[in-house]
Amino acid sequence: MGCGASSNHTKDKATVFPLTPAQKYLVRETWETVEIHKNSVGKKTFLKFFEKNPEYQRLFPEFRDVPPGELEKTNALYGHAKRVMKAVENAVSALDDAESFSAYLDELGRRHKTRPLKPTYLDSMQVALMVTLQDLLQSSWTEETAEAWNKLFHFIVEKMIKGLQS
């Protein structure tokens, strides 16, 4: 009986969000503001991502030949930013269902195999998103809020990398 319980505990641990109930609350609370501006947040995140890492723009076929000053106006940037923010929205919605969300992220990682995606690119995206969220949330962006969002995005990155490497 002890062995069965142990193996279930190990399985559960692998599919649990690494956020405390208080951190989940902070993410949900701040998401209410982010959600209103999610398309803008997505675009600003990508613009910051490319501003800090201009060499990454060439990794996106749809952005490769777009001058940096024109990038903000492209439908391709809007579309990709919208898809990224949908994944973030899915994360917030699934804070109590890590198992299903892990499967979604695993598949998302697999779909990115066609691109030369490396874990460091996702880390850079996390930095860009956190700066964008801080700019948007201002006084609501506390140390605790930052920690909660960073843990959530780290979970997203970890699970996507698992799919990417499968």
UniProtKB/TrEMBL annotation:
Question: Which Gene3D superfamilies does the record cross-reference, listed alphabetically?
Answer: Globins
Return the InterPro entries for the record: Globin, Globin-like_OT, Globin-like_sf, Globin/Proto, Globin_lamprey/hagfish, Mb-like_M
Q: Which PANTHER family match?
A: BLR2807 PROTEIN, GEO09476P1
Q: Where is the Globin domain?
A: 18-165
Q: Which family does it belong to?
A: Belongs to the globin family.
Q: Does the keyword Heme apply?
A: yes
Its domain of life?
A: Eukaryota
Q: Which organism is it from?
A: Desmophyllum pertusum
Q: Which CDD domains match?
A: Mb-like
Single Gene Ontology MF annotation: iron ion binding
Print the keywords alphabetically.
Heme, Iron, Metal-binding, Oxygen transport, Transport
Q: What protein does this entry describe?
A: Globin domain-containing protein
Describe, as the record does, how this protein assembles with itself and its partners.
Monomer.
